[in-house]
UniProtKB/TrEMBL annotation:
Signal peptide stretch: 1-20
Biological classification of the source: Eukaryota, Viridiplantae, Streptophyta, Embryophyta, Tracheophyta
Gene3D superfamilies: Galactose oxidase/kelch, beta-propeller (2.130.10.80), Immunoglobulins (2.60.40.10)
Provenance organism: Handroanthus impetiginosus
PANTHER family with a match to the protein in the record: GLYOXAL OXIDASE-RELATED PROTEIN, SECRETED PROTEIN-RELATED
Protein's UniProt name: Galactose oxidase
Amino acid sequence: MVTFLLLHLLFMIHFYPEKGRILASDPRLQGEWHLLHRSIGISAMHMQLMKNNKVVMFDRTDFGPSNLSLPGRRCRYDPSDEVLKKDCTAHSIIYDIGTNTYRALTVQTDTWCSSGAVLQDGTLVQTGGFNDGDHVIRTLAPCSGDICDWVEYPRLLSERRWYASNQILPDGRVIIVGGRAQFNYEFYPRNSSSSSESISLNFLRETRDEYENNLYPFLHLLPDGNLFIFANTRSIIFDYKHNAILREFPAIPGHDPRNYPSSGSSVLLPIYDKNSRVEAEVMICGGASHNAYPLAIQGTFTRAKSTCGRLKVTDEKPAWKMENMPMPRVMGDMLILPDGDVIIINGAGSGTAGWEYARNPVKRPLIYKPNGKTNNRFSVMAAASRPRLYHSTAVLLTDGRILVGGSNPHIYYNFTGVDYPTDISLESFSPPYLSPQHDFLRPRVIGVDEILSYKKEFSLTFTVPEFLKMGTVSVRIIAPSFTTHAFSMNQRMVVLKGGGVSSIGSNVYRVDAFGPSTPEIAPLGYYLLFVVHGGIPSSGMWVKIQ
Ligand SMILES: *[C@@H]1O[C@H](CO)[C@@H](O)[C@H](O)[C@H]1NC(C)=O
Ligand SMILES: *[C@@H]1O[C@H](CO)[C@@H](O)[C@H](O)[C@H]1NC(C)=O
Ligand SMILES: *[C@@H]1O[C@H](CO)[C@@H](O)[C@H](O)[C@H]1NC(C)=O
């Protein structure tokens, strides 16, 4: 007991209030990797967590045969498929987090390098792809049994959408921006009363270079309802309702493109919902060097960028603030963790995105503390055992783990005889907050309303072994991302107003908070709600904002 108290005291001295600092020499503070499956049959190129705690994953359909048979002996016939005209294997699965099991889904047209978003009713809408799939919209509704599957709507997109990005909007629609040789955007559902279905956006033409380093543009919905769009090195605030660029920011310093195939990553840092004007800050990290692509074609793999830029887009005169990661990285995935930190995971230290174009897998994730002391914001995590290069992906799970899958830098499924074989495994990374040494601080939510309303006060109850003190609790919501090609579309965290705690029983507490102020701050739909106490998050609870 005495030892425990002493340790506890030491721990408190080390970590509170100096929360910005993690002593990464302690292995328990570097997180843990777990192999969930050696094979899920497909290589997870795209991932989305659904409100039923299942993760939808898919790759492309024209890689050749995957390692998973299609259910019901159904096959896909595609005369334009470059590898198999008749394919009886699956290229999409649905993974159940709770049981760690998966089953094959049926996708009949090519989903390669496509995009997606979840509608307010929880349905995943996936848009575009390649070849016979480039104009297709596919939906997948969450269901409790084992019956849900893709529904495909051919030719529903007005343009070919290959390498486009999506964002859910405050009015419930999805905006689909760009794609290869597409300098325009469109909406889902389509506006039937409007004559032209796709609307031109010259910014996308202007930011295209010789290697098309403006694909998968970084889109973030800002708290004022406008869209932040970053392509290549440039960025704008875009009023999509009036097709008007409201402002252009200075280019990110360094002349290195950050979008695919240069493939840095981007997040909208956590939004603090307040009574005064709500601020918004974008962060972009890593990417390939500006000459990486032509050099990789010739077999020279240049060092990736180690710089990150932060831009407070709501400032009067926004300026990029640059920082250095402890190591360079291209094709890293940036995800917001429930405690408000950002994890940067997967990717390579040299080369670029594209077939066979990267080397030096970066196996160690980084955790970045946005509010930490300058020059002391990054911590280096434990190394994964597998490289996760081109076509790898990662999403946040309900319980705070990161699900990691995919990696296939080859045109086919090449499981042997290559440097970085097609990876069909599934792993999870547990960030340090999941370590048992934090259990005494970990809140467990025992009661919450599943429906939140805008501006409306609500309360939830939680238990915690040791309550620190008032002012150490906050409530926040996260919109799960559609992740592919190092960009997590629709990802956002809103730290809700409130946080006042009262004790209502032995180790039982009530916290009062307010639903988000506006649909611009948090569009309608399903979110994961987390209570954070002393820097340690609870498991996520699904709530619906309506
Ligand atoms: C998957 O791989 C295993 C091991 O190589 C093999 O035995 C099995 O037949 C494969 N299944 C399919 C559907 O390709
Ligand atoms: C649909 O198009 C019409 C005509 O262009 C326009 O007036 C209306 O605002 C549009 N609706 C939406 C939801 O954008
Ligand atoms: C990958 O496998 C295909 C056959 O499935 C083969 O034609 C190709 O050469 C392999 N690629 C490499 C890089 O070995």
